[in-house]
Amino acid sequence: MTALLEISGLRVSYPGVDEPVEVVHGVDLVVPQGRKVALVGESGSGKSVTARSVLQLDPDATIAGSIRLGGQELVGAAPKIVRGIRGSGAGLVFQDPLTSLNPVMRIGWQIMQPLVIRGVSKKEARERGIALLDRLGVVNAAARFDDYPHQFSGGMRQRVVIAIAIIAEPALLIADEPTTALDVQVQAQVLELLHEVADERGMGVLLITHDLAIVAGFADDVVVMRHGEVVESAPVDELFAAPKHPYTRGLLGAIPRLDSDPSVRLTSVADYVDTFETVDDEPAAPAAENGAAR
Amino acid sequence: MTALLPARLRPSSSPRRAPRRRRRGVPVAERIALVVVVLIIVIAIIGPWIAPYDPYRVDLAQALQPPSAAHWFGTDVNGRDVLSRVLVGAQVTLSATGIVLLITLVIGVIVGTVAALGGRVVDEVLMRITDIGLALPSIILALGFAVALGPGLQSAVVAIAATWWPGYARLVRSIVRETRHAEFVESAVALGVSRWRLVTKHILPNSLDPMYVQVTLDVAAVMLVISGLSFVGVGAQVPSAEWGAMIASAADNVLNGWWALVFPGLAIAITAIAFNLSGDWLRVRQDPTLRDGGAR
Amino acid sequence: MIRYLAQRLALAVVVLAGLLVMAFVMVQILPGDPARAAAGRNATAEQVEAARVALGLDEPVIQQFWRFIGRVFQGDLGTSVFTHQPVLQDIAAVLPSSLELVAAAMIINIVVAVPLGVFAAYRRGRAADVAARLLALLGAALPVFWLGLLLQLFFAGTLKWLPLYGQIGFGMDVPTITGATTIDALLSGDPAAFGSSLVYLILPAITLSASFIAVIARTVRSSMITALDSDYVALARATGASEFRVVVRHGLRNALIPMSTILGMQLGWMLGTTVLVESTFNRTGIGAYMVTAVLQTDIYPVIGSIIVIGIVFIVTNFVVDLLQLWINPRLRDSAWVRRRPAAGIPVAAQAGLTPAGSVGGVR
Ligand SMILES: Nc1ncnc2c1ncn2[C@@H]1O[C@H](COP(=O)(O)OP(=O)(O)OP(=O)(O)O)[C@@H](O)[C@H]1O
Ligand SMILES: [Mg+2]
């Protein structure tokens, strides 16, 4: 089983008010070929930053450590190489389908674009785009191909975003909370779809999520992050059966609190969602500050 | 009750942010601007006394002398000392600007208040009128009034005031509509205070803050229109030392008497920049949320 | 789409109505007796009375108003006392020259401001902030005419690169076909005259554009910042699109929406600013025509010019509204238009344009 994505010792920092602020402190993470890995952790733990640094999407982020995709080292690689893997090495799906699509461009063109910039003819790109959209369950895909994003519902838009992410046939799909912004019912459909398509194409998936219920049904492996570090990583069955780290136990909410981590509150499975707020001892304020200072 | 306090006196709504905001006081550029504004106002008052020469005395023998120890800013085509004229011109230009803004304020307050309290139809009609006033360039409309009044600084002042008030009417209207529902107003209403008294004693005094900011910001704009009208000959007439008129009379000698047009123009530009910077600073001080968004 | 069009058209009509009311009021409050003016200097009292009746000046104001509107729609803007020509004819003769100047200034405005705004958004940081602020500050503070004279001083005086002022080189002459010198030179197949008239257009156009550049640059910058920070730009990047494609095809395409609205308004304001620029550079045009008329207390040319400039303003804004349909596909969807926060009148956007609410002396 070869590693498709291999992250080791990843450190990411952003320019702060006086000095750079490190938000990811040495993360190790492996996505084997064709496997699905879930990355979980509380808000602000650095999941998105980790995922985005694979494609180096933040110009002001400083990345150190090693990120290998299909054996190719990306940290410190030439911009041309990084651009080359974007879309065809790894595709990315964001959280909010309402903002992920360009409002002034036809969805068809947005789906075709990754192919067109790789030299595929417009005609072929269009055919493949329609076929993919059809496969992703958009009814009447050919007719709707020339619609604009605002004419699509949220769930349909997320299918479009997925189509954009996978049309150039990446070996890895990174999905950053792809269903959080959707209705519960649509969530299940989209996840199901992702699962199927990944299996069909033998894609590896790095799924970022808050929702442990999703993890159990979707992923093969789980990586738990907290405060910019990985606290535990294990195959999904193992982790659910015997979480090693107290924080994971807190997340799972199944085991009475031990004395080890005072910031973890005892929870039941039912209200573990609340846990994220209460264990969150570093509120989102720093992000707001950084945003405002720019 | 917090709505009654100017923004800067309100308790900070996000205490978490407070320590990050370093209180550095007034930024350097704004500090200089404030000093310059004060300086210009002082010059406008005492200009005639500190002018080294008679700003109106024609001496053709001294025409178009370049800047020298005797005439720091040189002399104009009629041999008049440019420095003296710039100093005296501050009074002419700034007092004209001040009068325009004063008339504007009065009309704006009246129209805005009437629109805010006068019912839907009145409001709609008045606001459509202000739309036109805001849509067309002020200088064009001012020419329309100026043609009736004949050339001259006074008619320019009246003409500009007649085109400038719609912005203030809008501002006053929105403030009055906001304050109308403030607690202190509602309690005054409950006490049976009359409408007129309510407006003059309660609502307007509380509306002043945003207005003096707008006035400061408008000084530059109004001054530019006044000097523009004077430049084309519609405003201040010869031999007035109004800055725009000075530039107009120097325009024929661009190539052999640059000083006669450069210095009055600099006076306009510096005054405009100083007032704009100060106005911006006042605005941000009043509403700190503009600080980061302001530059965008 | 229908809804949006109706909305915009209604707005244009309202503004036009307001413009005409205002023009009428101006004519009414103006001192001086139009009947006497029409009857001529040496007219007897009876002749003046006859002219009064002929002009309908003895009727009630409302009737006079409708009469006035009727005349305006027939293209009758009155007669100039000094040129003895119908005002519309005068304006038709000078307006093309102004439009040529405005077009040249608009090109400079766009060519300078858009790249500047894009660059400032892309290279965000203190330097770009300070530069943007400085530009805005100067744009709102330098008197237009003074800037024009300084440019004359430097480029015509010191460097001797460009002519001081005027329309075309001495001794050159082009037949009046449209009234816009450059176009007339082209039409009459005179390349030398065309070159000359272009050279004469450079300084006035730069002067006219100067105070508008900062506003567009800032608009572009702020909408580009929003666009570049958006998910859809990140997604475009994540699919391997080049930076150029990301910035221009995705970012700038979205920034076009607010930019085009403001450019449309600027066109009308630029036409107003020709009052100052044409005087500075001794050019013919509607601005110079107005100034001359004001100095001669010639009422109808001034009111007529205001109406024409106002109509140009209204028409360009409506055209921009139509363009918006193409730029912003969401507007074609009536449901979306309805859901949108109350569609403001275009002038409402003005408040946000510059802190001073003014652009180089032209509000
Ligand atoms: N562009 C940025 N500049 C500065 N700091 C950033 C930036 N992006 C993220 N951060 C910081 O990095 C930390 C991790 O953020 P990240 O978005 O990875 O969290 P997350 O685990 O994805 O949270 P969520 O579940 O809420 O999406 C946060 O503290 C955030 O403030
Ligand atoms: Mg995230």
UniProtKB/TrEMBL annotation, chain A:
It comes from the Bacteria. The keyword Iron-sulfur does not apply. It is found in: Cell membrane. It is a peripheral membrane protein. Residues 5-252 form the ABC transporter domain. Gene3D superfamilies: P-loop containing nucleotide triphosphate hydrolases. GO terms for molecular function: ATP binding. Keywords: ATP-binding, Cell membrane, Membrane, Nucleotide-binding, Transport. It holds the Pfam family ABC_tran. Its main location: membrane. The keyword Cell inner membrane does not apply. Belongs to the ABC transporter superfamily. This is ABC transporter ATP-binding protein. It comes from Herbiconiux daphne.
UniProtKB/TrEMBL annotation, chain B:
Pfam families: BPD_transp_1, OppC_N. InterPro entries: BP-dependent_transpt_permease (IPR050366), MetI-like (IPR000515), MetI-like_sf (IPR035906), OppC_N (IPR025966). Keywords: Cell membrane, Membrane, Transmembrane, Transmembrane helix, Transport. Residues 1-22 are annotated as: Disordered. It is a multi-pass membrane protein. Its main location: membrane. Residues 90-279 form the ABC transmembrane type-1 domain. It is found in: Cell membrane. SUPFAM superfamilies: MetI-like (SSF161098). The keyword Chaperone does not apply. The keyword Signal does not apply. The chain crosses the membrane at residues 32-51, 92-117, 129-149, 215-238, 258-277. CDD domains: TM_PBP2 (cd06261). Belongs to the binding-protein-dependent transport system permease family. This is ABC transporter permease.
UniProtKB/TrEMBL annotation, chain C:
It is found in: Cell membrane. It comes from the Bacteria. PROSITE patterns: ABC_TM1. SUPFAM superfamilies: MetI-like. Its main location: membrane. Pfam families: BPD_transp_1, BPD_transp_1_N. The keyword NADP does not apply. The chain crosses the membrane at residues 9-30, 101-122, 134-155, 198-217, 255-277, 299-323. Residues 95-324 form the ABC transmembrane type-1 domain. The keyword Cell membrane applies. It is a multi-pass membrane protein. Keywords: Cell membrane, Membrane, Transmembrane, Transmembrane helix, Transport. Belongs to the binding-protein-dependent transport system permease family. This is ABC transporter permease. It comes from Herbiconiux daphne. The lineage of its organism: Bacteria, Bacillati, Actinomycetota, Actinomycetes, Micrococcales.
